[in-house]
Design goal:
2 domains, mainly alpha, 10 helices
Length: 226
């Protein structure tokens, strides 16, 4: 009896199904054509002006670096100026006025545009009653140093019997700009009292009482007018 033929069955491997590839349709809308046109215009502009753009970027970088370098330079100057100024302050605290004058003059002459240099200009002028340094301090663009310089310039002028010039300096201290306005009023009144112009001095006292009631200068002038 014959054996029935049999076939060797082999498992068929399942093929991996690849996702269908989506082929986009041709872009032929007016909007798409405009976008493509704009894109090529930009590319063309960049190619045409590439050299100018690179030069512009380098110029901006150079200017930015220059500004940063200038700031570092200014800060470095102030550090040097502050070192000299601090020596002067230390000398003052220890009663060495002449030594302090030397340091203040040094910082004023070497670093006149730094904050410490401006302060040194004023303090040297104040200690030595030097009108050149005081007037220079008065002209500085500093909220604290400038009015103080003007005030002390007026005091020195008054001590030299230059009363008209002194009054001019004191009255230049505007209440809207300078924190020394009450001091300027006070010294103006002192000049008037010296010239025996009691009425004018009293007028200033009334201003001080109205605007600076709690000021030291108001109290002092009130005592003098009693």
């Amino acid at each position: 009896m014959k054996k029935p033929p049999y076939k060797a069955y082999r498992k068929k491997e399942k093929k991996k199904e690849e996702p269908p590839v989506h082929i986009p349709e041709a872009i032929d809308t007016p909007e798409a054509e405009m976008m493509v046109s704009d894109f090529y215009k930009i590319i063309g502009f960049l190619e045409k002006h590439l050299q100018k753009i690179v030069v512009g970027i380098l110029l901006i970088a150079t200017i930015g670096g220059g500004i940063f370098g200038y700031k570092l330079y200014k800060e470095n100057l102030e550090i040097k100026a502050a070192t000299i100024f601090d020596r002067g302050m230390f000398a003052i605290e220890n009663g060495k006025e002449k030594e302090a004058e030397k340091y203040f003059k040094e910082v004023a002459e070497k670093y006149p545009d730094t904050p410490s240099g401006k302060a040194g200009t004023f303090l040297y002028g104040k200690l030595t009653k030097n009108l050149f340094f005081l007037e220079k301090a008065g002209k500085s663009e500093s909220f604290t140093i400038s009015p103080a310089g003007k005030l002390d310039t007026g005091v020195v002028l008054f001590e030299e019997n230059k009363t008209d010039a002194a009054i001019g300096k004191f009255t230049s201290l505007s209440r809207d700009k300078d924190w020394t306005h009450p001091a300027g009023l006070y010294y103006t009144a002192i000049v008037y009292l010296t010239d025996k112009k009691i009425g004018k001095a009293k007028e200033i006292y009334e201003i001080l009482k109205g605007d600076y009631q709690n000021s030291f200068y108001t109290a002092m002038l009130g005592e003098l007018l009693k």
